[in-house]
Amino acid sequence: MNLHRWFLYAATAILAVLIYDLVVAFNFEGGTGIGLGTVVLGVNVVFLALFTFSCNSFRHLVGGNVDCFSCAKFGLARYKTWKAVSVINRHHMLYAWVSLATVCLADFYVRLVAGGIPAIAFEDPHVLVEWYYIVIGFAAIAGASALGVLKMGRFNIPGTAG
User: Fold this and answer.
1) Angle 92-114/75-89 helices, nearest 10 degrees?
2) Short-list 78, 7, 64, 18, CA closest to 44
3) Of 68 and 46, which is predicted with more confidence?
């Protein structure tokens, strides 16, 4: 299991680089915007993050080696994180296959835009928007996703019937 955890650390470092690439993908010559490539890279990062953070090593890292959550430091926070990771851990293999497909799609798209495929000329279609619209959009998506994960885990949260 230790080797698995070292690969988790390496995957997290690679994920940080991909997140940086995603942030850079919002910058166009005319300003900030969203393009098809930005969406492809964003979907890739999301599924790789789901795959990475749904693994058993991460689950053990945040909540393992504790016999009593109420006795440990930050026990309640660790317990809630462990429960949330346990919910997404149920679909770890699905995230593995989907992230494999999104990595292939992202690599193909980047090669296509870079002009690496002879006889195919392709430019990334994009729309320029203000940067705060992008931040608000990501915050809304993240909030809705987190609420969905919490509802799947049957957490008792005030104001979230279901």
Assistant:
1) 80
2) 18
3) 46
Q: How many angstroms separate the first and last alpha carbons of the chain?
A: 36
Residue 126 is given by DSSP the state E
The model carries a pTM of 0.76
* Exposure of 1 in the CB half-sphere (CA atoms within 13 A): 8
Contact 85, 96 (CB under 8 A): no
Residue 157 has pLDDT above 50, yes or no: no
Report phi then psi at 124, rounded to 5: -70, 115
What does the alpha-carbon distance between residue 110 and residue 18 come to, in Å, rounded to a whole number? 13
Q: What are the percentages of helix, strand and coil residues in the chain, rounded to 5?
A: 65, 5, 25
Which one, of 24, 55, 56, 29, lies nearest residue 41 by Cα? 24
Q: Are the CB atoms for 146 and 85 separated by under 8 Å? A: no
Q: How far is CA 19 from the centre of its chain?
A: 9
Q: What local confidence, expressed as pLDDT, does residue 44 receive?
A: 93
In a 13 Å sphere around the CA of 114, the CA atoms on its Cβ side amount to: 7
For residue 53, give both structure tokens. Answer: 């953070």
Nearest to 85 by CA among 100, 63, 68: 63
